[in-house]
């Protein structure tokens, strides 16, 4: 049967013969790595569930620290203003949440987990920034009223973290981090708006109307 196929192929005009060879070759080709094909490039700090699980406790504690620091430094006492602070805390597009875009995710020294490092500049909000935002939103969700009440009472950092971070920081064995996970290279945001939004240059009191303060 193979010989008949070769004779039939030889009888074809040159152009049709080349086309037939290409079709047969593509049908028989299998990518290196088995039926599933070769593995794609290493994942770079992607916004996925595994990344969020590994950073959610750290993100929650950082979020509570940021909320308390901002409320204290900018003398935010009104309940409505505190609600705005907590509502925008996880949004890197808002001044209250710009800290989200200042975090860089890296593997820990053992290589088995992830750690967060805060930079002194606002970075571009790419995959890692979105992962932090997602983890922050999950941590704060369902605790906003409690956090506002504690901020209003001038509660200490430990009370805030205990109130909001019990679930994300619950002791448990984390899923294995993929060996292909590679952190993004932190890139400082170049836009004029982002570059001017360093922590020390945002007047949070201007975020609210006079009657709200």
From TrEMBL:
This is Saposin B-type domain-containing protein. It comes from Alexandrium monilatum. Keywords: Signal. PANTHER family: NUCLEOPHOSMIN (PTHR36058). The keyword Signal applies. The keyword Signal applies. PROSITE patterns: PROKAR_LIPOPROTEIN. Residues 1-34 form the signal peptide.
């Amino acid at each position: 049967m193979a010989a008949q196929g070769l004779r039939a192929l030889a009888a074809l005009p040159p152009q049709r013969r080349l086309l037939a060879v290409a079709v047969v070759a593509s049908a028989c080709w299998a990518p290196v790595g088995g039926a599933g094909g070769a593995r794609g490039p290493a994942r770079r700090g992607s916004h996925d569930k595994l990344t969020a699980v590994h950073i959610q406790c750290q993100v929650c504690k950082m979020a509570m620290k940021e909320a308390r620091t901002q409320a204290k430094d900018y003398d935010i006492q009104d309940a409505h203003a505190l609600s705005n602070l907590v509502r925008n805390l996880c949004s890197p597009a808002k001044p209250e949440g710009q800290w989200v875009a200042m975090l860089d995710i890296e593997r820990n020294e053992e290589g088995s987990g992830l750690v967060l490092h805060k930079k002194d500049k606002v970075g571009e909000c790419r995959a890692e920034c979105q992962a932090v935002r997602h983890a922050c939103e999950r941590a704060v969700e369902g605790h906003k009223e409690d956090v506002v009440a504690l901020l209003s009472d001038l509660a200490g950092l430990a009370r805030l973290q205990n109130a909001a971070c019990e679930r994300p920081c619950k002791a448990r064995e984390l899923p294995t981090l993929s060996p292909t996970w590679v952190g993004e290279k932190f890139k400082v945001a170049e836009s004029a708006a982002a570059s001017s939004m360093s922590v020390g240059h945002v007047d949070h009191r201007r975020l609210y109307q006079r009657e709200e303060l």
